[in-house]
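pls read this stuff:
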Amino acid sequence: MKRIAIILNLLVMMILAGCAESTEPEVIRTIKKEGVLRVGTTGDYQPMSFLDPATGTYVGFDAALAEDLAESLGVKVEYVPTSWPTLMEDTLAGRFDLALCGITITDARKEQALMSDGYLGNGKTVLCRKEDADTYTSLEAVNRPEVRVMENPGGLNEKFARENLPEAQLIIHDVNEEIPGLIAQGEADVMITEILEAGYYCAKDERLAAPLINDPFTHGQLGVLMPKGSEALLEYVNEFLANERESGRLEELAQQYIYGNNAETEAVPSSSDLVPALQP
């Protein structure tokens, strides 16, 4: 009888565990069963998600956020390389569960796929040589035939440049993280980029400046991208982001990866601009 009671207790526990598991959405169950969260990343965006060639690991605000998300699910992160030109195609093809690498929320992206609530403020601004900081203080100043604007292909920076700087010389360079150095060397004059990236590179290279970092051309937020059909995962991610904000974790990551790099510069975006209330 004692042996039968033990067996019955085990059966009850198994049934209860199965019932608890069955209440989870299929996409969450699949991730947990496989033990990995597949995260798409371009790996070229400092200080958000960058593949460090020295260590072969991904570092930055979004890389840390991805690790937190995977930990909340009880799984490991598996990074899946993508690129800005193929980001949406790879997302819709299901090459990864979600993409998390400094992706701006736009209506166009939301029409094709799912995007989480915004978790970090951002906006387009100018990155230039320090000696030119007093020159490039408006779009009109950049939109001139003699000004060389360098952008990486396929992303919103290139799109913004094409739409707003038709008179300038647009130079497309494949490797995003090389562009700030090329600007500093005089290979081009201006890079249109996000305030996060501009501030990061200004802190790393004293030859660079971001004269409009606190007055960007656009105002937006970063979000997590995933294919339609992943609504349950979207709901989970939004709850996760809300918890990260309420616990102070988003501000902690901003201090570590953004403010820390800007500590010795005057171009420091305000805390409320970077970590605003979460908005869809």
